[in-house]
């Protein structure tokens, strides 16, 4: 029997403190966010997206972004990133000494307007300035494209628009692109078709995948991505998260479930499973509700 050869190592981009908490109605105390991020820093994760420097009225759950970034204990070898929508947010991020800037845009016009209150073309103009100034200030930049596989308002999204935005962001100067299945509609065949086109233009190390598990296909989509040589995945500990501007979007792919699958496939992650689970249980306690990941549920029941 012949098997597809999988990558020897995968890099997990932990987005729980930002994407996981941004849609929660309960505000997590700043001190608890800081403690949680510090716990995540000790797990072996090499990348943590800690917050978003958006207008606090847009995302009240992350209104303490400045305080969080300034007070976390940065661990050697860990990149601490934050989402930045515009120059005002960038100035705050730079003042807080964030390591990496993340910029975001949607492949769907309607979702982009609801998420950013601008057209796609207007957003590209804003992001070009943010990327340029970030690089000038010696910050690496990561790009996100949302609703890559489907939009809650427009339905299917054209691959050509995803490719156009990919080209646009890399031309601006981003170092890595995360492709987001914001509402969790993707299937493995869609993933393969998109990656076949993208990987003709860009090396696999420049591409990351960001899956939501709304319909239970996130892990299958990871497997399809691994088969295409992708080694970078966004995930949120415990499966926390959802887009506030995408009705019906449930949680992110759970970091702990992703790590379980990868480690048991013999794929290196450099993550300590027990420390990861401990951090998940800490946040579950602060949320006052069960987390959605299978790993947490298994621990709770055994």
SSE blueprint:
Elements: E1 11-14, H1 16-20, H2 30-41, E2 47-52, H3 65-71, E3 79-83, H4 87-95, E4 100-106, H5 109-116, H6 120-136, E5 140-146, H7 159-172, E6 176-181, H8 188-198, E7 207-211, H9 218-227, E8 232-235, H10 255-264, H11 273-287, H12 294-301
Parallel strand pairs: 1-8, 2-3, 3-4, 4-5, 5-6, 6-7, 7-8
Helix pairs in contact: 2-3, 2-11, 8-9, 10-11
Describe the structure.
With 302 residues, this protein is an alpha/beta fold. The chain has a single domain (11-301), classed as Alpha-Beta Barrel (TIM Barrel). It is built from twelve helices and eight strands. It has an eight-stranded parallel beta sheet with strand order 1-8-7-6-5-4-3-2. Helix 8 runs parallel beside helix 9 and helix 10 (255-264) packs antiparallel against helix 11. The longest helix is centred in the middle third of the chain and has 17 residues, at 120-136. The model has no long low-confidence stretch (mean pLDDT 93).
Order of helices and strands: EHHEHEHEHHEHEHEHEHHH
Low-confidence blocks of residues = none
Content of β-strand: 5-15%
Distance between the termini: 35 Å
The global form is globular
Mean pLDDT: 93
CATH class value: Alpha Beta
Radius of gyration from the CA trace?
18 Å
GO biological process, one term: L-leucine catabolic process
Organism: Sporosarcina thermotolerans
Pfam family, one: HMGL-like
Domain Pyruvate carboxyltransferase: 10-277
